[in-house]
Amino acid sequence: TTILVLNGPNLNMLGTREPATYGSETLDDIARLCHVTAEANGLEVDFFQTNHEGELIERIHQARGTVAGILINPAAWTHTSVAIRDALAAVDLPVIEVHLSNVHKRESFRHHSYVAPVAVGVICGLGSNGYCLAIEHFARLLGANHE
Ligand code: DQA
């Protein structure tokens, strides 16, 4: 059972990008953390980052029928993209939205998410641990569905 972990624009810069906001972990560190957490919970992770919106949309389309759920940090597209929200709605898979920072304590343009209404839930402000918690939640959710 595979969870698709999607990361939006500029998250490839983690580690050096605004460390006061996003911490010093790199995206590779977060990928490793996701793989370890998934394995401990009997899941597999397919980890992907892109700076191209169309590429993210195509990965979402491909997810249909091939993965059990989508963990997405849409980054700046959270606040701008109806297209990503529509793609997530189209594939009809459980979605968890994750942000490293607490977007509610930041600029007001980060307070609105186009993605949140099509997500099971949203985790923000817990840094990379948010990714772990989302994967653990998928493990419970999917386990329960299989009973
Ligand atoms: C982010 C929050 C977004 O507002 C921002 O555009 C990002 C990262 C986060 O993980 O905290 O790029 O999604």
TrEMBL record:
<dbReference type="InterPro" id="IPR018509">
    <property type="entry name" value="DHquinase_II_CS"/>
</dbReference>
<dbReference type="InterPro" id="IPR001874">
    <property type="entry name" value="DHquinase_II"/>
</dbReference>
<dbReference type="GO" id="GO:0003855">
    <property type="term" value="F:3-dehydroquinate dehydratase activity"/>
</dbReference>
<protein>
    <recommendedName>
        <fullName>3-dehydroquinate dehydratase</fullName>
        <ecNumber>4.2.1.10</ecNumber>
    </recommendedName>
</protein>
<feature type="site" description="Transition state stabilizer">
    <location>
        <position position="17"/>
    </location>
</feature>
<dbReference type="Pfam" id="PF01220">
    <property type="entry name" value="DHquinase_II"/>
</dbReference>
<dbReference type="InterPro" id="IPR036441">
    <property type="entry name" value="DHquinase_II_sf"/>
</dbReference>
<feature type="active site" description="Proton acceptor">
    <location>
        <position position="22"/>
    </location>
</feature>
<feature type="binding site">
    <location>
        <position position="110"/>
    </location>
    <ligand>
        <name>substrate</name>
    </ligand>
</feature>
<comment type="similarity">
    <text>Belongs to the type-II 3-dehydroquinase family.</text>
</comment>
<feature type="binding site">
    <location>
        <position position="73"/>
    </location>
    <ligand>
        <name>substrate</name>
    </ligand>
</feature>
<dbReference type="GO" id="GO:0008652">
    <property type="term" value="P:amino acid biosynthetic process"/>
</dbReference>
<comment type="subunit">
    <text>Homododecamer.</text>
</comment>
<feature type="binding site">
    <location>
        <begin position="100"/>
        <end position="101"/>
    </location>
    <ligand>
        <name>substrate</name>
    </ligand>
</feature>
<feature type="binding site">
    <location>
        <position position="79"/>
    </location>
    <ligand>
        <name>substrate</name>
    </ligand>
</feature>
<dbReference type="GO" id="GO:0009423">
    <property type="term" value="P:chorismate biosynthetic process"/>
</dbReference>
<keyword id="KW-0028">Amino-acid biosynthesis</keyword>
<feature type="binding site">
    <location>
        <position position="86"/>
    </location>
    <ligand>
        <name>substrate</name>
    </ligand>
</feature>
<keyword id="KW-0456">Lyase</keyword>
<comment type="pathway">
    <text>Metabolic intermediate biosynthesis; chorismate biosynthesis; chorismate from D-erythrose 4-phosphate and phosphoenolpyruvate: step 3/7.</text>
</comment>
<dbReference type="GO" id="GO:0009073">
    <property type="term" value="P:aromatic amino acid family biosynthetic process"/>
</dbReference>
<comment type="function">
    <text>Catalyzes a trans-dehydration via an enolate intermediate.</text>
</comment>
<dbReference type="GO" id="GO:0019631">
    <property type="term" value="P:quinate catabolic process"/>
</dbReference>
<keyword id="KW-0057">Aromatic amino acid biosynthesis</keyword>
<feature type="active site" description="Proton donor">
    <location>
        <position position="99"/>
    </location>
</feature>
